[in-house]
Amino acid sequence: MKFRDGMWQVKEGLRVEYAEEVHEIAQTEKGLSLLCPTRKISSRGDTLNISTLTIDIEAPCDGIISVETTHWRGAANKGPHFELFPGRQPKYEPKVARSDKGTTVSSGSLSATVDAGEHAFGVRFHSTDGSRVLTSLAPHSVGLAYDPAPTNQMETGDLRRFRHYVFTQTNLGVGESVHGLGERFGAFNKVGQSVSLWNADGGTSSEQAYKNVSFWLSSRGYGVFADTSARVEYEVGSERCCRVQTSVEGQRLKWYIIYGPTPKEVLYRYSVLTGRPNTVPSWSYGLWLTTSFTTNYDEETVSSFLEGMKERDTQVDVFHYDCFWMKGFRWTDFVFDSEKFPDPKGQIARLKSSGLVNKICVWINPYIAQHGAVFDEAAAKGYLVKRKNGDVWQWDMWQAGMGLVDFTNPAAVKWYTECLNGLFDKGVDCLKTDFGERIPTLDVEWFDKTVDPHKMHNYYAFLYNKVVYEALQQRYGETAAVLFARSACAGTQRFPLVWGGDSESTPEAMAESVRGGLGLGLCGYAFWSCDIGGFEGLPTPWIYKRWVALGLLCSHSRLHGSSSYRVPWIIDGDDRSDQGCSRTLARWTALKTRLMPYLLAQGASAAARGLPLSLRATCLEFPEDPTAWFLDRQFFVGDSLLAAPIFDESGEVEFYLPRGTWSCFFTNSTRTGPGWFRERHGFGSLPLYVRENTLLVLGKPGIRGAVYDYTADVEVCLYQAREGASVGLLDAEGKALGALRLGAGDELEGKEILKGSWTISGSGRQIDDESYSKTIKWLS
Length: 780
Prior knowledge:
Layout: E1 4-5, E2 9-10, E3 15-18, E4 24-27, E5 31-37, E6 52-61, E7 64-70, E8 95-99, E9 102-107, E10 110-115, E11 123-127, E12 133-137, E13 142-147, E14 163-171, E15 178-180, E16 193-197, E17 215-218, E18 222-226, E19 232-236, E20 243-249, E21 252-259, H1 263-274, E22 287-290, H2 299-311, E23 318-321, H3 344-354, E24 359-364, E25 367-368, H4 375-380, E26 403-404, H5 410-425, E27 430-433, H6 453-476, E28 483-485, E29 498-499, H7 507-521, E30 528-529, E31 531-532, H8 541-551, E32 557-559, H9 568-571, H10 581-594, H11 596-609, H12 618-621, E33 635-637, E34 641-643, E35 652-664, E36 670-681, E37 688-691, E38 694-698, E39 715-719, E40 726-730, E41 736-742, E42 748-749, E43 759-761, H13 772-775, E44 776-778
Parallel strand pairs: 22-23, 22-32, 23-24, 24-27, 27-28, 29-30, 31-32, 39-43
Antiparallel strand pairs: 1-2, 3-13, 4-5, 5-6, 6-7, 7-21, 8-9, 9-10, 10-11, 11-12, 13-14, 14-20, 15-17, 16-19, 17-18, 18-21, 19-20, 25-26, 33-34, 34-37, 35-36, 35-37, 36-44, 38-39, 40-41, 41-42
Helix pairs in contact: 5-6, 8-10
């Protein structure tokens, strides 16, 4: 929200008051408390009839400082509140020091210094060693606002006709860029943008987002997390070009500044604050195939799809039944459509025993349709959100007369979990948790009367996915749970995984999805996916095949559409040629299967550090390269693989390689960065480059399915590897087995963990398909 009209004027109709000076500084148990009047105090009389802002600066742990600005402290601070330090809060004693430069509170590597000048206002955030100034709160950067403007103070005795805001503005340095704020589909660098954090079902082509996260990452080595589940409005260099403004409606605003100095260290500390992602089971990395949304299907359809995939040399690890496993008008009532699926438990067992698929997923959402089998029970027992007059809150959007599960009610949580257990009893292994964005805020009363309905709008995604994830953990084990979620807010990264929502079947939408995945990854989400081929519309064969390449290099890979199937033979009339859809899908699925030793180890590492596995922005790996902060058409898969999707029908692509020697995965040819390069590719490849000093372990060629022995008959590939280069290996259960290390004289250490006829390749991998030399052309 903008409060000013240019630099000099207040926006018409508003009243804005700024903290003009730091009048008093009090030391507290956790840091400092600043009393800041909204005019300079030259005499006792100046203390009358003015507002003040209290700014509390605290140091909860090393590298993190919180800043809370409050106008009226007596205002209720209703929940829900984010679960901070969900693991364990590190013990830390803040340090306070005074000098002629100001009063400083330090949290290990990060400090905040309050300006010592008389009648001055200013707070600098800097590294404790003095080597870096990160940002600051300068004059006229902290304030409150009324809309509309009251004509006198007496009017504020009744706030019902006013909207009251608190805002802060942190300085943007010259050349500084800002990234994150959730899964946003616009420009990767947010400078110049107005961003409103409000979960919405708006597709991937607008300013709306399914996953709004109140955290942004700066190219200067710090991040900022706004600690509120309410709507947060950002003006990122868009009200004042040199500032990031954060505003909320209410009486207080709290945020945390998190120091790196590297972006990876920032994300690690952010994950300590809001929660680290859990790991996901190895089978989930394989190919997922769905029935698609409104398509007509039954048991015979499902079997034919899976048999068709096997015939075309593609193993499906997870099959997903989308919405119409239940009858229309009945979502979600957890009851299989008896006409289409007369024996769901038997069918699922037959599919698994046939080897056509390993795991089964079904679609759910938190909405309970009036015509469904469970609505009456849920309504009668108070499991659904109510209106203020006591009625069940209902509307006819999406499902006729649908209600909304009230996850603030422990009894409703228990009931919903029992419903899920009924699905698990039938053989369902994982769940797609769709929707959760259209959460009402008006005429609503929750079971928990302490929550603010407006704050519940975004936070509902956290509660919904937490309940489902924990139900999966209770049934299948702490590390065996996985869901496929669309909505999210801060903290939801703890419950992997998420996908990018409803995209169109166009190259532009594919690029939007990449930008969304990159931004969400910079908010601590380790695992991300998208609808291969796009959700809306029917992709042309070339778009489908290029999206297959992108999708199989995401951490998780799912074929899914809206009103059309995504099995490859429907896309191109069952072209069985080398460049057809079926063969393209088989190749990329086989490649991901071979990468499983690398992906599983990298996934565990990414989750432990709060980093994205894929899509990982180049700036995380090369933060000192200014170009890396603007790259939104390429990404890393883990630490060592750089991929550039192709968005043009010609197969041409332009991409950037940072400093170092890079090896083409498909040909072992090398390029030297930094620099921009252009290539043309057939459908079986894209620019996929291996970073120098990499040991890459590949599974045995020909293996089908994501789960196998990742130490047997593997190929250990050396890419300009130097002594000391190493790689960890995990088994299919996620247990660490040890590490391979390149010792003196290129001797491979730790090889005792390898089994069978493993091999080592000294200059990249063994090239088993010479066709790439004909389908890849370097243009520059």
